[in-house]
Structures
1.
Amino acid sequence: MHQRIVPQTVLTIPLSRTALVTIEIGFFVGSGDENLAQSGIAHAMEHLVFKSRRIGEWDASHWDNEAALLGGLIEARTSRDSTVFSLTVPKENAIQAAELLKKMLTRPASSLFTASDWEKEQRVITSEEAMGASDAEKISRALFYQHFYAPTAYAEPIWGSAKTRVNITVPDLFAFYEKYYRPENRWVVIAGGFTPTQAAKIRALFPEGNAPLTVSRISSAPPPTPKSGKTMRILGTLAGLSLRGSVTPPLTSETISWKTHGAMLLLARYQQATFLPGRQGGLFILDANITPAPPPPATITSTILAQLQNEAVSALASETGDATGDTMTEQVARCYSLYAGMGATGFLEKKHYEKYLRQVTLDDLQKADQDIHSCVCVLKGDKEAT
Amino acid sequence: MKMRTQELPAGLQLICLPDKQAKSVIMSVFVRTTPQDEGRKSGVATLTARMLGGDSVSRTPALIWQDQSRFGRVFTVVHDSCIELTALSVTDSESLDLARQTLLRDFLLQPLFAPLNFLTTQASLAKESIPFDPRTRVLSEMRRHASGGDAWGQERLVMPAKGTRLTLPDVIAFHKKVFTPNRTVIVVAGNFEIKEMQDAIRGQLSLGGWDAGYNPTISSPATSPPSVISPVPARLRDLGIRAGSGVYATATGWIVPKNTDFSALTLLSAILGLGKANRLFPLLRETYPVCYDVQSMIDQRPETAIFGVYTLGNQPRAEIIPRLLVAIASLQTGREPITQAELDRAKLYLNGQTLRLQEQPYAWMQAIGKGLCCKNNVIEERVKLGSVTISDLQKVAESLFASNPATAFIIP
């Protein structure tokens, strides 16, 4: 059993210029923690908590209907590090939203779902898996994880596979829920335009959040042993896409050099790469199709570094939302949850984030570049007919 | 967010969304165009859009790039029914001036379609690949078939296809025909003074004679869009595409009759398939778990719109479309009429969604600009949601679903 201490578990992030509030409840359990034979159980659980019903009073649509009445939609996501449930609503509904999420996630296991629900949900998950198999970006990311982290659970697809899902029984799922969907294994993030009174009332809903928590995980995956390589695999039926993926050193709170992490963030910004930090190391993905190729770190001057630092600091403070459909409150909450799921919330407190980013030197950027182990994934196919 | 609308004499609409606390200014120009404007030169809209900013009468390509690094950047996006040019800028007056000049003078009004610009843009487009997206693809096919597969129904502005010969005169002719003030909407959001911004924009527009006295030739569509296709010819009703993508996708669509109340249609869409608290999600994903995703959508075009429902998953259409049509028929015939609780919930949900949209200035600007290009005022439509009644919804459902739907599906 892997355990760690998380210093703060109800994170309130007031944002002055918004009429929305995002509530996130996360659990310290993700697909990277699973036993390989039951790969996909964390993701299955994420689906099944929505099934929770009270016979004769409400059905499985209850939670979605209640969220819609508050003006929002409950979303959920399972990563390799954690499972997070999120709801964004107009700020006047913040307390009701927190109550709703709490209620949904603290039902007795026996009221959650039936064997028939699990049977049906497996078909939905199979659908989701099929959709992932048609998404070039998801495929390439999955291949990178497989390449760098096999044979640990971190290398497996988040939804597992039909072969591993069939090993998961209803009693296994109940036991999983009882063990990990517990107050001492969760964190809460509230981001948005809430009032101090609302914040106090929401905090009161999660009284355990005022004390440090000992986080339990299913297993402690071995440290990654990053491998370098060249072209991994060619798939003939997808759109042409070539990505250069790299893995960084692990970013756990015990071993991380936050400055190195800051350097990775800045390097990603400079090279227009995607940086996906995780407990077992970050994935650094470059689109190899870009011409001209992204400039190497050696071309970063001290002026450019200062500009990158300013941009990165202001990006966190940005209150404009983005064009992807996520509001500013969702982006901020998701960012905090990402680090909370890694057991490393401290980094995201602005003073730390800014401090570590500002400390990064040109040498750190060169070193960061050397730290990453790279390989290339090519998904080759015809262009979509237009 | 406050809003100020101004219509210039030449027909251009200018909308300002000032926000004193914003840290930047976004200026977007939306120019209405559809595949009909391209005629047989499919892809010329995309090629033209991509050439904008590559060269200009007043600035060399190098200077245009250099200018952008001083205020932010400018980019172009080709949407289904319009071309968007957007400038992002910091808020100091010098940067804003430069951003306006670059966007309006160099990109919009005085682009230079030089041979070198043409060749490099064509070469760049030829290298691009579009990742396969089953949702986009199935909806495109459904739209094409819902409209009878004619020129009007071409799904969207597309990349130049292999074998289509496009020349520089084609680009110049397209630009002359389409880039006119009466087809243009400018939306500005962020930290600026309204009067100052309006005056400065008018000043820039005068460079092209767009501020007043412009006498455009209004080009009308070559063919009128159909208002109702009923019944959809059998050969067009179902279209299967073998995509080898590993996913099944279906799209079912109806042409929206003319004079439909769009506020009621938006609510009907929410009640049927927007988000998760609706009729179709519990039916198709929970009761019969035959798909992973099911959503309704309204696809607006300048003259009309299509209401559609798409599903994604791993089950063939026979598992999905009959169940979907039964649910639609129950609603249309009044066997399962819309309830007050459903209407109230949909209104609350859409209010929340409107707030979300308004908090993302760029997304909100796009919704406004693209809506106006389709002659639809998103803001008015959202305001009117509150007064829609069950009877309004039932009327829309009865007329909308009276025609046969067109369907498209993707087979792995």
2.
Amino acid sequence: VSGALVLVLGAAVFAQEPEDSFAVTHLRILTVTRGEIDSGTILVRGQKFAEVGKDVRIPEGTRTLDARGQVAFPGFVNPVSRIGTRDQSGGGTAPTPLHLAYDEIDPTSEAFAQARRSGFLVFGVSPSGGPVGGQGAILWPLELATKDRMMIERTGFLRLTMHSNTSTKEALRQSLEAARKTIESEKKAPPPKPDERPSPVVRMLRGEWPALVWVGTAGDILHFYQILDSFPEFKPRVTLVAPPEAYKAAAFLGERKARLILRPELAFLPMTRDRVNPAAELSRAGVTLALAPVSDTLEAFEEHLLKVAELVKFGLPRDIALGALTLAPAQMLGIEKRAGSIEAGKDANFLLFDQDPLSPQAHLRKVFLLGKAVYSEDEPR
Amino acid sequence: MKTAWVLLALLLQEPPRKDPAPAEPSAPKEATPPKAPPRYTALVGGDVYTVTRGVMKGGTVLLKDDRIHRIGVALDLPEGTTRIDVTGKRVLPGFIAVYARAVGLPLNFMNIGKVSDAVDPYHESIQLALSGGLTSAFVESGGGDGFFGPGGSPGPSAVIKMSYGTLEGMVILEPASISLSAWVTGGAADRFEIRESFRKAREYLEKERDFETRRAEKKLGPQEAPPKPAPAIENHVKLLKGELTARISASDASALKRALELVGEFRIRAVLTDVIEGWTMPEEIGRARAYCTFTVRTKEHPDRNLARSSGSSIEQAALLRKAGVKFAIVPITPSVSTGGLAGRDLLNLPIEAAFAIRGGLDEQTALESITITAAEICGVDHRVGSIEEGKDADLVVLGGDPFDYRTFVELTFVNGKLLYDKAKSPYFSHLKSGR
């Protein structure tokens, strides 16, 4: 009998889950992809946005939260993070494409709670490592979850690091060359074991996996593309993780329609006290930008919006800045179909602010991750 | 008729390739971008100091892409030429530094490998160097002679251009030189090692000559490959063939004599650097056909215990010139900084040369010492160092006499591109010299 009861209960839970829906009404919604909606409604069903708009019909009996005056914004996506890892810097120049960030992650890390309450709901976690550093993980900072439940992609991108010296350039060149040979030989004869997983570098060259490329100087950018340009038959999806001085290469990067991740910082024109806004310069040149917090600490998470607001104050267009927190990084990680905006069908990751998120007075009131409230300001921290 | 053309076109078409041929490692695939029309720039109305062919008053220098295309008075300019009026100003070849530290390269102590893998075209030193009219420089990774003290081993060397913002055409020669300073500073063991390397290099050259002779006589064995030098003596072979220069740091007369022994014994193209007492023995240096580099303002008191002449002399440049020695002048500090307005670093190369004029050197040779002779010492005089048709379009436009301390560089071109304009410089646009 008890067995049957468990079965019935189990079935009930299973059947109920997709019906678990709620609505938030009277919101100003910054959708990121479809402009702003005044006095709109977000209808969530299960883990997804079911409907978003001005005239959403709310099914009878749906839990409804009237959030009059509040502003909804997609959860932040941080594409360059080492959250939850034991911080070890990668050394050496030997390629380590098979290293996994997954293996470095501790799911019990307190940092995930800090991320949730600061509105960071998707992370691209990079492995430590050298020129070909390894495979990055893409995850949600879920509470009390197993590591595997947290994963959006256990292995989702390749991390490369570029330094202008002969050994790094040779290591990178040789890895790409080996991958090219593999791809060419597979064109002639399919691999003997078709289910064997292709190497990460092969997947990157084929454009199946994005690559995040760490560069230390603007000059490194030219050296990296010098290598990439010697493989013109491939069009990998490359995103650079760059220092503020990358603005010096703005024209070069703009011409290539490059994608770039910056820390939200102003710079100085060298040897002067003249301010330069790297994000604004790069965006004006045609570069797609993501803005990532300077570190994985609570302080960096909490001051991130203020720093982004400062960039807007000094000339970065507001819509570019908002996209740089959400959709752009989602695209760079290759998960734009499920993250980065408030749209029907995407994961219900969103934030409620009491006023415009870029206002210095704005408070983050509530955080929803995969359709569940994971933080509310009213609750004690 | 139309079908015939289509047929012909089909016949002329290359047969489709089944498989792409495996490419050489890292060889860029042949790309066929649409060829851009040539870019013409003309500097019109200035006094053109060609360095090698005199001064042309009120001349025009026409640049085509990255080269000097035509020089003349009242040239016909092709359609679409960007015309820059430089009436009343002077057009010179860009200045060349025979030694620069931390220019275009980060100053680090790590092994960077090749210079061409480490240059940073966005390095701030390049912007500054351009503001001083510098367009090419000899650089070493690491620190070079003297940086680590005597016996320090310099890293690989190269001649680079101040091509801000692009790697294309930045490194023009690598390796550019090797250091044989150990011959002077080291002991018997160092000298033995250098002599051994040259002995092996000569042996190798014998083998190479033998191979060539037998090839000419068609007496080669089946599939006999040409000989290749061992990596350890590769540079020594190049030195003996005259394809590479050796740099030897030699300040005082005894060091200079020691260096000249080496030059005489192996008949190599040598550059004597940091020369101070060269003025005491100009004929000897001239007979060895060695080049010199030095700083005119170096102060070294004579040693009263010596019977011979010693110490520094402001007349060194003039005396070397009289003996037919070719030399390049380097500033006191071989780097760039905004603190160098007083004329002590690479931003003010002509000022250092002006002190040689004060010591009796003629202006023409002084100009050569920072342009064509410097290029020759670096091994790149076929590309840069003078304004001649076909050479690289590396030019500076000066507001006045090159050796006047009031003269500013107003425009600098590298590879045909205007990379510095004083009027727009955040560092120098506000400065106006008194007259």
3.
Amino acid sequence: VHSLKSAIRTVTQTQAPRHPMSVDADDEEVYSKHADDLIRFATGLVGPSNASDVVQEAVLSCLSSPKWTHVIDKRSYLYRSVYNKAAEFQRTSNRRRLREQLTARWELMETPPEVRPEVLAAVFRLSMKQRAVIVLTYWEDLDPRSISRRMGISEGSVKRHLARGRSRLKEVLNP
Amino acid sequence: MTDTLDTQIRALVTELINSAPQAPSLSELERRENQVAGVPLLPRAQGRLSLRRPVILAALGAVVALGATSAGLTVAGSFGAHKGNTTTRTGSGSHPEQTAFNRHKVVSAVLTADQDEILSETTEFVDPGGQIVNAKRVFVDNTGGNAVYETLSASGSPADALVFSSESVIDIYYAKQVWWPVQGRSGARSPSLQDPESTISGVQSLVSSGQLKVVSRAEINGQAATEVVGEADGLPGSSLTLWVSQATNLPIQAIGTQSDGSQQVTSYLWLARNDQNVALAAPAVPSGFMELSGPPAGEVPTSPLG
């Protein structure tokens, strides 16, 4: 019964209708300003194959949210949305891959040749939060305080995830 | 060394980020949204339900049996020479169809277990000489949002435990009979462990990403219903072998081997969801233990996450 409830809850969440999306010039400007950074951030979280889907879901979710017009720091809001969609993607990607397998399109899900498998393997050994903090630290050169504001988590949490992420990567890179 | 590591990480991140696709334009996103809006989501969701139910029934029954046969918890004994897994290979070979099929079953079973079972995993760190130098045990209740990370003493009992709940995180130091709230840690709504192969999501990723492949069938510790699902060789200098129950499709053991011969052996138990097993992931502070405001002065226990 518990599992059935969970499954039904999942279905309900999946089917939650979006508010109609209304895009204005300000949205265009905000998105175009941050689109490249968002797709890179998403790539760091879920890899290049799935980054577009994650960004698409995140941006559409933001733009159709009633809260969007009241958001002051839209960049951070978008980043957090990308992070949340990436985490959601990680939870559901296996089901999606399964469907792809069943329709004989498995090969489409394989890693693009331009990324070495060991790179993805190393990054995927990190938790999603560790990935986010690592990417923001080593790609965007943000310090923990800035990451804290960007992601909406405490500075201590950022430092902890960074330390664990580095430690994990150290094991992988210097076995 | 730190600079070198930073350089390595920066190079790795740069390579990954440089593979980023072109960002879609907003008009492209709108177009995709309109396409998606015309496709009902229900078939996908229904597929999920129809997939899950049979697996739940099969997995629950089998997991109870698996748990009953191995419930002594692997590290209930003492440290010493690692006995290793008694393995009897009964075949070998791999072909794509078999790999895909097993991947499917394993991911389905793990996803189901994510909802229902309490994951118990015990990890032994074995040096190149075969001696167990450290052991940790974890109980994770993803549904309840509780988890406990224990460092085990030589006798197999917990020496220290980090206990996560949705409200707090506390550290219990059994040897000193004290406990304290852990500052700076938020509640663990989604407990995640350090080692990807030791986490539900990590196992999902490893299996579904194709890093693992079927290489042979085997027996482990006398359990006939097991098979080798894979050996991950994508990581420089290390390998991972994951053993999955044929009966339940759930991982029962992962062996990570470093280039120096040291190993990290993780044993999984997927415990049925009942009051007794739920309590394993939410241990209470033993009566008589003194509350402290922080770690005791002097000797500080090794963090179970360390």
